[in-house]
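Structure ticket #2291
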Amino acid sequence: MPTATVTERRIESLLELHLRPSLFIPELKNKRKSAVLEEMTAHLAAHKVARQADPVLEVLRHREALGSTGIGKGIAIPHARSTMVAERAVLLARSAKGVDFDAVDGNPVHLCFLIVAPPTEQDPIYLQLLAEIVKSIRLAPVRKRILEAQDLDQIRTIIGGQLGND
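Resolution: structure written out below.
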C-alpha cells in the first residue's frame, strides 16, 4: 500500500513575518541618507505605522549621529524606538543606483532595512530582526537576487531560503 507523503510547511522567520507589501519601497527616489530617511519615515506615517514622521526621523538622525547604520556591502539597517511608532515594523527599500549612506566601507547602499518599534524595556524580537537581516543578506549572490526580484513575495522567498538553511 503506498504511503502518502506529508509536505512539511516551513515556519516563517520573524523577518519574513515583518516584511509586508505596504512597507516595501521598490525604488527609492532619493540618493542621500538624510533624504532617504525622510522618505522612509514619511512612508511609515502614510501607512499608519508611525503617528508622525518627524519625531521618528529625529530619533533616526540621532542614531545615525552616533555612527552610520550603513554596515557595508551595500546594506543599511537604520533602526529606532519611538513613542510615535504604533507597532514593531520593518520597511524594506531598494536603490538600484545606490544611496550615499556613509557606510563603513564607503560604498553606496542598495538595500535598506528600516526597523522601528515602540520603546519597551524588553523586546528580544527587535534584536532578532537585526540578526535575521544580517544573516539573510550576508552573501553577495543573495543581495543581487533581492535587488533583481520582481516583488516582495520573491524577496520573502529568497530571505526565507537563507534563513531556512541553518
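Closing remark: Residues 14-161 form a domain with the Mannitol-specific EII; Chain A fold (CATH 3.40.930.10).
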